[in-house]
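Example 4.3 (complexes with small molecules)
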Amino acid sequence: MTATKRIGILTSGGDCAGLNAVMRAAVHRATLTYGWQVLGIKEGTQGLLKRPVQYQVLDLPQVDGNMMRMGGTILGTTNRGDPFAYPMGDGTFKDRSDEIIGGYRELGLDALIGIGGDGSFAILRKIAQKGGLNLVGVPKTIDNDLGATEVSVGFDTAVGVAVEALDRLQPTAASHARIMVLEVMGRDAGHIALSAGIAGGADVILIPEIPYSIEKIAEKMRQVKASGRNFGLVVVSEAVKTADGGEVKKVFEGGEKRYGGIGDYIGEKLARATGAETRVTVLGHVQRGSPPSPRDRLVASAFGVHAVDLIAEGKFDRMVAWSNRGVVDVPIEEAIAAYASVDPEGTLVKTARGLGISLGD
Ligand code: F6P
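Answer. The structure with 6-O-phosphono-beta-D-fructofuranose bound is encoded below.
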């Protein structure tokens, strides 16, 4: 594909740490190795919907080392507004996918790098197929639930933030002889809770993949007390359900529902069952907003370089992925289909059990 001169890049879905590092790497590879121009599309597909199309030129002076350190995305992003059923604000929905295809053409793009999760890829792929766009995907999500890659950009940083929270909760828990419940993110998958709970020395880790009972958790807390320790650390993933199987969610503007509140539920039940003073911390978006960890910077950089190489090779409709200590690429279709929740028989669950951590079952 020698004629490729101009590529677009956009961030889509919820932000996380490492998005800017992907862009920085892609710009370096595209500019230094191939002499291409890179355009950053603003606010995900929203930028391609607007007229004039909203973008900024990303050149080398803009993507210095500082960009790699920065959390968030300099381009902006959105996790709302499916272009195939776009909310028009008056209760109606419209298929605006052709406008996005038009935006891509207006910019004269030869290819597009989409940095997103499974939801974003499903939409971007549908648009690419409809309009014949050359799409390459880079996986990002703090939830780490894309099965085709061992790791997604943003996960390691989110785990680091949750571990730091446990490091900070432990001394105050010990000082006041309390049980501390930490609610962490992870839409439908317990990867953050499991990794952070192990690395942060939790006594109990609750994940949506393993059913729990309050009595089992209370029993663990009693054992901890009987062993002479005056405090307990409990990590609960936001997607954990109540004892009767209910989801705990909050409703936001536009009727959007998000997980939130299971920590309070567990904290209250645990306090009643054990009589222990209990406090709850909801970590929330802190997990998404910090500077990327070294590991995320490395993965993001490797992904950005490989994504551009795929374009150079004319290999489209593929997502870069991490596998067996290196970067590979897989069909986006496969990547969307392969959802990865926590394996209840996997290494980390076994490790947690081996450490005497209760998983509530
Ligand atoms: O998918 C990433 C994620 O951070 C989830 O862990 C969380 O449930 C959700 O996004 C929060 O979404 P929002 O930023 O819209 O509140």
